[in-house]
């Protein structure tokens, strides 16, 4: 099929490349010339495993093109909207200006029978608001939310858990759903659940899923707070409750909490939208979820301060991790980097290391010191913090070897990803999150 993808950020770039890899003819459109140039040369503008190969294959096959010129979408029959919906400045609601601008720029090039498929995460009610502009051009608007995880984006796009398409009532909606079912054929042929809903349900599925995941993480972090005053171990607690298939162990990782470009802003936007709908109390708990999450960063800072006997002034601190999670160079709302910045603010001499995110971190927080070599970052440190659970720290870091280069063997494990027994055996004072 001939398709276009408008917005070539995280979601759009991966979607465009993935759709080309399954045989579609794809044109990606973005207003950012640098991004378009990089993508057209098959260079991924961010770190995502598998994306560079997929881009290279797509571009060299001729099935994948990138442009800043919207008129290039004229031959496409399905147009995906994958632009960002960041948190509005000075408020919690989503900023929809990029979605509105994308639709406005696209409409003049639509033909009767085309399908516009929104993938951006939007407040419920957005698709209904945009539908008439699209249908005036004889095209059909559907909402097709995306559930990809950074770090697994390629796999999640080609082989998702489920596909959801919100369509308008009637034949046009049925037909559009059928076109998307065919478009996603590798997944739909093998029986991946394909759910056709109305607009509001599709929009809500997306924010409900992220709200649930955020709630699960904050639930276990709330248990960590209780564990901290009772001497219990939250990781054992998570293992034990996780054996109940109704609960499940995934996303029960207690630590410094969630960050990134999605979970934090999505729960805030959801709460703001619910307020607008007069149903603020229905998701009032999301404010608590947010508050618990942010308290975990305070807790990590507290642990460092108390481990250093109350004063950080001039203390050498090695921070292992800057990305909001491993397998990503994304530092948007990264708890890891936030903790590093706070320690710096308290007077510590902070050196941050990360396998992929240093360049981004340096751009945002030039006041911190950065070091790509873990061993050099550890040199003479008076305390070590692990705040992103990269394999480089979780698996590869040997506590005895690390102990040779630091000034003091104190480690704060902000992700509960190290083995306390091994670290203590190598002479370290080990502090976890919600662990004795
Ligand atoms: C999240 C959702 O998982 C995706 O399904 C969704 O499509 C995406 O947002 C989006 O809306 O675009 P992502 O932001 O890539 O994906 O990251 P997650 O894997 O969900 O992790 C989010 C944060 O939670 C990270 O900071 C991670 O370290 C933290 N986390 C995760 C925990 O603190 N504990 C856990 O047990 C799991």
Question: Could you explain the architecture of this structure?
Answer:
The chain has 436 residues and is of the alpha/beta class. It folds into two domains: 2-197, NAD(P)-binding Rossmann-like Domain (Rossmann fold), CATH 3.40.50; 205-436, Rossmann fold. The protein is 44% helix and 13% strand. The chain contains 18 helices and 14 strands. The protein has helices at residues 10-21, 33-40, 51-61, 97-106, 126-136, 153-158, 171-183, 185-189, 199-230, 234-242, 263-276, 285-307, 335-345, 358-364, 374-378, 391-394, 399-405, 420-425; strands at residues 2-6, 25-29, 64-67, 78-81, 115-118, 140-143, 163-166, 194-197, 316-320, 349-353, 369-370, 383-386, 410-413, 429-431. The strands form three sheets. The chain has a six-stranded parallel β-sheet, with helices on both faces. The chain has a six-stranded parallel β-sheet with strand order 11-10-9-12-13-14. α9 crosses α11 and α9 (199-230) packs parallel to α12. The mean pLDDT is 97. The protein binds uridine-5'-diphosphate-glucuronic acid (UGA). Uridine-5'-diphosphate-glucuronic acid is lined by residues 121, 146-150, 210, 213, 217, 251-253, 255, 257-260, 262-263, 324-325.
């Amino acid at each position: 099929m001939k398709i276009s993808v408008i917005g070539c950020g995280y979601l759009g770039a991966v979607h465009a490349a993935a759709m080309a890899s399954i045989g579609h003819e794809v044109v990606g459109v973005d207003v950012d010339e640098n991004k378009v140039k990089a993508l057209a040369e098959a260079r991924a503008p961010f770190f995502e495993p598998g994306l560079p190969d997929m881009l290279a294959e797509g571009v060299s096959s001729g099935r994948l093109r990138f442009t800043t010129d919207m008129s290039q979408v004229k031959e496409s029959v399905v147009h995906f909207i994958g632009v960002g919906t960041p948190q509005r400045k000075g408020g919690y609601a989503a900023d929809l200006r990029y979605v509105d601008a994308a639709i406005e720029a696209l409409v003049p090039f639509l033909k009767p029978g085309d399908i516009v498929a929104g993938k951006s995460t939007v407040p419920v009610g957005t698709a209904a608001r945009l539908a008439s502009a699209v249908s005036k051009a004889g095209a059909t608007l559907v909402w097709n939310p995306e559930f990809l995880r950074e770090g697994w984006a390629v796999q999640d796009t080609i082989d998702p858990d489920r596909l959801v398409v919100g369509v308008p009532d009637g034949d046009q909606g049925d037909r559009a759903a059928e076109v998307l079912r065919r478009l996603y054929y590798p997944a739909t042929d093998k029986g991946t659940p394909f759910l056709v809903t109305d607009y509001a349900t599709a929009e809500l599925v997306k924010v409900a899923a992220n709200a649930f995941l955020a709630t699960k993480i904050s639930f276990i972090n709330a248990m960590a707070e209780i564990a901290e005053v009772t001497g219990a171990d939250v990781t054992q607690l998570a293992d034990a409750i996780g054996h109940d298939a109704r609960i499940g162990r995934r996303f029960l990782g207690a630590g410094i909490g969630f960050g990134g470009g999605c979970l934090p802003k999505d729960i805030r936007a959801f709460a703001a939208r619910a307020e607008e709908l007069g149903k603020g109390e229905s998701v009032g708990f999301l404010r608590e979820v947010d508050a618990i999450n942010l308290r975990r960063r305070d807790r990590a800072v507290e642990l460092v301060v108390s481990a250093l006997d109350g004063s950080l002034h001039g203390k050498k601190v090695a921070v292992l991790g800057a990305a909001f999670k491993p397998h990503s160079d994304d530092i948007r709302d990264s708890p890891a980097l936030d903790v590093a910045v706070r320690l710096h603010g308290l007077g510590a001499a902070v050196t941050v290391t990360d396998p992929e995110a240093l360049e981004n971190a340096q751009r945002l927080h030039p006041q911190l010191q950065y070091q790509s070599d873990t061993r050099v970052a550890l040199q003479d440190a008076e305390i070590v913090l692990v705040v992103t659970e990269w394999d480089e720290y979780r698996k590869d870091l040997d506590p005895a070897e690390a102990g040779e280069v630091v000034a003091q063997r104190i480690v704060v494990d902000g992700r509960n990803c190290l083995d306390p027994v091994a670290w203590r055996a190598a002479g370290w004072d080990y502090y976890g999150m919600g662990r004795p």
